[in-house]
Amino acid sequence: MSAKIRAVNIDAYRSNKLLMNPMGQPRQNHLADFKVGVDNVIFSVDTHLHRLLVLLVKREDQPYQNYWSFPGTLVRMGETLEGAAHRILSEKIAVKNLYLEQLYTFGNPGRDPREAPDQYGVRYLSVSYFALIRYEDAQLMSKNLSQVSWHNVAAIPTLAFDHNQILDYGYQRLRNKLEYSPIAFEVLPELFTLNDLFQLYTTVLGEDFADYSNFRSRLLKLGFLKDTGQKISKGVGRPASLFRFDARAFAPLRDKPLVFV
Amino acid sequence: MSAKIRAVNIDAYRSNKLLMNPMGQPRQNHLADFKVGVDNVIFSVDTHLHRLLVLLVKREDQPYQNYWSFPGTLVRMGETLEGAAHRILSEKIAVKNLYLEQLYTFGNPGRDPREAPDQYGVRYLSVSYFALIRYEDAQLMSKNLSQVSWHNVAAIPTLAFDHNQILDYGYQRLRNKLEYSPIAFEVLPELFTLNDLFQLYTTVLGEDFADYSNFRSRLLKLGFLKDTGQKISKGVGRPASLFRFDARAFAPLRDKPLVFV
DNA sequence: GCAAAAGTGTTAGCCCTACACCCATGT
DNA sequence: ACATGGGTGTAGGGCTAACACTTTTGC
């Protein structure tokens, strides 16, 4: 026990993180030193199987070895936060389009076990990012696919660090954004049926958020969904029209509350 | 000039922040070291004069000496982010109630001139917080009031660091929150008239966001504003009823979109 | 023909908007 | 009395929710 504390202190001393006053107590009011990480909560939707997915990687190293976690990395010298988010994302997955925004920052002491137990060593702060990508376009980038994979949000295991909490934030952000912002079209393929869109909303927001026929007519009346004239047949039943999202027609509705749902 | 760079490098070396490879170039892929600050965007509304206010402090030290900035501080060892936000806030202002939430994190290289010019020294990351307080309850905490004061959001000077950008984020958050969340009651006094409430919305969202009589009946129908029966007279004209926000009656409307406006 | 999936139509009730109007008070 | 600010009422247009109905396909 005392050996462990001693080791911590030596390490802290060596990296000049922990300053002692002449009484051997840590100085009050001394600034904390941080390493800053980014963690990406990457969502996608499998329209066919109606599954909301999030991308997880299995940690190869300590701490939390073999736990699933969000793709994250520590920020390097000269690198922007968003740059770090893009870097780690592109190491795990290849994707054409991508929606990315900052989610939340977690930086309380003790959130990373690499911090010294007495909390006077280096601290690890995580800036989390929220991302959406098209399931069809995404290509996982691992030789060993067991290390990177999609997980159904409905069944997420205990994750490394405070990542379950980060997921809660991300999931809530996703639900909120769906209601007033056209992010659904970041997740859908270029051409989609209105049923695809409806299924996406149902998958994320729950089964009973709205009636299909009303959802349909409300969105069509808004005028930013363009019927391409093409039809697609999914087995039995009447073929569906393929639509395209027209960003230009949507522009005037920006910042208007509640266009969807 | 070269003396300055030398000073930076010595400082970086001393705190073990800048590692050189044998060629004298900074090592690639080396992690950045951060100091983490919090900056509070503290809003209040002067209901009488219809002014939206934000609290600024005048910087006493370099960099940006004598510029106005948000009350901010660097995070100390063992301190939570929110703890640091509360600490600096209570140094500048005494207040009974307080609404505080995280706003956004700014951490790109070069945002603080204390970073070495070549950007390979310590970096300064800022986690900004959004706060709302009651103007009547707030007591500025300065012997020298010229150093801490309310500023009309309509006329903000050039601020220190990237604080004008932070203000933009904060102002937008305020407007969004007003629409779907009961934060207005954090800013209003305990008892208020419906006209106070309406003036608050008008001040923040603009003159023509709604009709007073419709605003009034819509909110009253929702049932979380309790008429205390007390009247208050503001000079000439019919005295107004004083209302109180009933948080319990509001609870079922939590997370429901667009209860206001 | 029939089941399945896509798409259209209808109706009643609600809410939002834009006003007009009435009420209570100070001077 | 009348100006001033507080408060109520109402007619209409538009939107929503719920559900019935029609169309187009595969088998």
Automatic annotation (TrEMBL), chains A, B:
One of its GO terms (molecular function) is DNA binding. InterPro entries: AraR_wHTH_dom, NUDIX_hydrolase-like_dom_sf, NUDIX_hydrolase_dom, WH-like_DNA-bd_sf, WH_DNA-bd_sf. Residues 33-174 form the Nudix hydrolase domain. Pfam families: NUDIX (PF00293), WHD_AraR (PF19368). This is Slr1690 protein.
